[in-house]
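In this section we walk through a basic example: taking a raw amino acid sequence and producing a predicted 3D structure, encoded as discrete structure tokens. The instruction is simple. Fold the sequence below.
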Amino acid sequence: MQKNNLQQYFPMIRTRKELLREIGANPSLKTLFNTLKPERQQEFLNFCSGVKGVRLLYDSFFKAVMDPDRDPSRLSNFLSLLLQREVTVVSVLSNEGQIMPDTLVVMDLIVRLEDGSITTVEVQRYGYAFPGQRAACYSADMLLRQYKQKRDQASANGTRMNYRSLRPVYTIVLYEFSPAEFHAYPGDYVHRFHQVSNTGLEMDLLEEYIFVPLDILKEIVQNNGIRNQLEAWLAFFCMDEPEWVLKLSENYPMFRKMYEEVYEMCRNLEGVMQMYSKELRELDSNTVQYMIDQMQEDLNRKDAELSQKDTQLSQKDKKIRDQAAKLHQKDTQLSQQENLIDELQNQIQEMKKLLVENPNL
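The resulting token sequence is shown next.
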């Protein structure tokens, strides 16, 4: 069988025929493969055989290439580009003690930089699941954890807690499918937020945010090509078309090594399939929850619309009742006026009759 482009570039990639032969020869692997939906089986075979690139937003693949314990220079380089200053990752922080649940979080990576600041990188499939409010909670969580650490250190040393020793916290969110509001800015794929005053007064309030809509980045890169190293990193994360895999590998050699690591992982077919199956179970569960949340939001919106319409109808009914009361009042006034006119006309007739009968009056 003739090799495809990726197999020519990464010789460790096996053919579809070889993959199916191994699956068929391993009963447990075959059973696991058969639990996948046909379209998922096709996707699995495609990225393992190089027909498509590997989706690096899958948790296991992402951590394999970005794990600071294996190679801190990769995450340091990526964060330096995103934060627009040179930074070095010095340690990975445990997720224990976090306030927010990790439902719908594809990858949760919290690291400390050389200046003591803390950064969390979140990769989200659905932007709906990670609104600004949730980002603020994550930021507050990191700041509180840092505060507790500083307070405990001060207590152990018998000194007072110094708030000026607290370092910034950065919440970075990569959206595979970004929220609708991001699409009002089709030319922007990095949005930076920090707290500012209305007067221009500057204070170090510590919390900063970066949101990256990868779906918008993909459109920009497809139209304009990769123009800088940050775009190369983001394309590496989200673009799995073979031609882009080859472009990144040729133009940015560091990515070739990362792709090689991923394709070596794919040679452990059973391990990768178990990982893939787990990812899909979480994805399906998250998708169901996402759909439930969307349906609930639609119901809430419709309830609000119905409530608003009921209020409007009630206001219209009241207006009609008020108008009816006014009309009834006018009818009453008209009836009284008609009665008064009739009475006056009767008096006039009586006076005329009296004058006829008594002309000398």
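Looking at the output, two observations stand out. The CA atoms of residues 21 and 171 lie 45 Å apart. Residues 97-107 have pLDDT under 50 and may be disordered. In the next section we compare this with other chains.
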